[in-house]
């Protein structure tokens, strides 16, 4: 499974080799308005002549079937076949949506991901999850489909503003909390003061790959990766529907505090560990703002969480720092209580 990953200075040369493989017919690059401007120029020297650029609007608001239709229309209009390649250049929205478009187009178009945000490099582009939002629900439609390759070059992180970089860092912290207590201890000292992101990205990717390798389609251990996401997705979806959108990583950071608190309530985590988690996350992330009276409505959106089984809301919690535990049943009342706890901090 690791053969499709290329990291560091060898990533873009590996992309060139893939795109010039005999039998490749056409190449398209899918980018959003930001990556077309900031990242595409650095990618161009590694692309074959005659490739096509497909540009979509930037932002979670456009992670929809309507945007997919625009991509499919352009591929169809220009005669792309199953021997063509779609290169997805962007953050999680582009890699999720582009992977989804490629998986469905003619039952499977060759696809290569070039993630440009920290969140996409350590999480969204790793493991073969694709999808789009539907009626405000995060990644409600999607398939598991590994790309032909993921080419990770940390030079693209220089194009990010500090807020986007922090958002990606949330997924790194999540990997520490579910699987690597030593890395969390070290990360608490370093924070976002990172001179070279490549070792950090490599370590985080290794954690995710180790989990995905055990469970590619999320029937068991891969659910660990959803720590912070039951509450986080509900919060992100609610605020998006209210026109108060926040970044995915910001929602996950809040979700991790809520779900760490739930872990304490369930007798899995001690109060000292919760305090360490809260203190560290609040040194990096600003508090997500919502009104106390909104907590039940936010919690209600967790009914659509993909980990649920029937009426049971399954959550990933912590048995300790560095040890996640999945399939922990929680009630809507408990989720709302965790949001009230967060609101009071």
From TrEMBL:
A Pfam family the protein falls into: DHQ_synthase
This enzyme's EC code(s): 4.2.3.4
GO biological process, one term: chorismate biosynthetic process
EC primary class: lyase
InterPro entries reported for this sequence: Dehydroquinate_synthase, DHQ_synth_AroB, DHQ_synth_fam, DHQS/DOIS_N, DHQS_C
The 3-dehydroquinate synthase C-terminal domain, residue ranges: 168-308
Family matches, as CDD domains: DHQS (cd08195)
SUPFAM superfamilies: Dehydroquinate synthase-like
GO cellular component: cytoplasm
Domain 3-dehydroquinate synthase N-terminal: 54-166
Keywords attached to this entry: Cobalt, Lyase, Metal-binding, NAD, Nucleotide-binding, Zinc
Cofactor(s) in the UniProt record: Co(2+); NAD(+); Zn(2+)
GO MF annotations in UniProt: 3-dehydroquinate synthase activity; metal ion binding; nucleotide binding
PANTHER family membership: 3-DEHYDROQUINATE SYNTHASE
Role, per record: Catalyzes the conversion of 3-deoxy-D-arabino-heptulosonate 7-phosphate (DAHP) to dehydroquinate (DHQ).
NCBIfam families named among the record's database cross-references: aroB
This protein's name: 3-dehydroquinate synthase
Organism, scientific name: Hymenobacter jeollabukensis
Gene assigned in the entry: aroB
